[in-house]
Amino acid sequence: MKTTKMNIKNLFLALLFIGAAGFTSAQTTQTDSAAATATATSQTSNPAVEELKKQIETNPKDTEALAKLATAYQEASDWANAVNTWKRISALLPDWAPSYYSQAYAYQSAKDDANAKAAYEKYIATVKPEEVEQNRKNLAYAYFYVAFAEQQGNPDKAKDYIAKSLQYDPSNQDAVKLSKALNS
């Protein structure tokens, strides 16, 4: 059990790093669907992915290998497989918040805003109080994303969420602008 907790902790720290890099990429990278499809197709012949798939066939509950596979899919912009793999991890570790954040990132990258919003909300709900401090940046972004998505349909919820976003990251200029727009 101690090894599992240690592996999960190490995996969590690695995913925080990946999430931070992915967060920047999600906000700045535009990919056209043809390039994404070509990359996804080439990913199926990636030896590392194939090796991870074999490892997972041997042990379908190996969450560390699943996370590596999901990350490999994300790096290849294979969003459908990334989402499905993160969902498998969430089924195995339903209280592990980073899997929901990673799902949201993959959905967002695939331009599936409704599912991205739902996954960010699940991430927010799953972060344990003792994990808040180490998740401040991701929480700030998750709250911002939901506030942005809700600004037209539910402005009161958007105001609450943008306030939370700024509580976690007051330096986010996009959140500051959204807050001003919502509160004017």
Q: Quick recap of the structure?
A:
By secondary structure, the protein is an all-alpha fold.
What do these coordinates show?
Helices cover about 80% and strands about 0% of the residues. By secondary structure, the protein is mainly α. Helix 9 (about 155-170) runs antiparallel to helix 10. Mean pLDDT is about 85; it is low at about 1-45.
Percent of residues in helices: over 70%
What general outline do the C-alpha atoms trace?
Answer: elongated
Give the terminus-to-terminus CA distance.
52 Å
Q: What share of the residues does DSSP label as strand, in percent?
A: under 5%
Q: How large is the count of helical segments? A: 10
One letter per element, helices H and strands E, the order comes to HHHHHHHHHH
Structural class: mainly alpha
**Main beta-sheet annotation:** none
Number of strands: 0
Which parts are unreliable, with pLDDT below 50 for 5 consecutive residues or more? 1-44
- Mean model confidence by pLDDT: 83
- What is the gyration radius calculated from CA atoms? 17 Å
What are the SSEs and their pairings?
Layout: H1 2-28, H2 33-43, H3 47-58, H4 63-75, H5 79-92, H6 97-109, H7 113-126, H8 136-150, H9 155-168, H10 173-182
Helix pairs in contact: 1-4, 1-6, 3-4, 4-5, 5-6, 6-7, 7-8, 8-9, 9-10
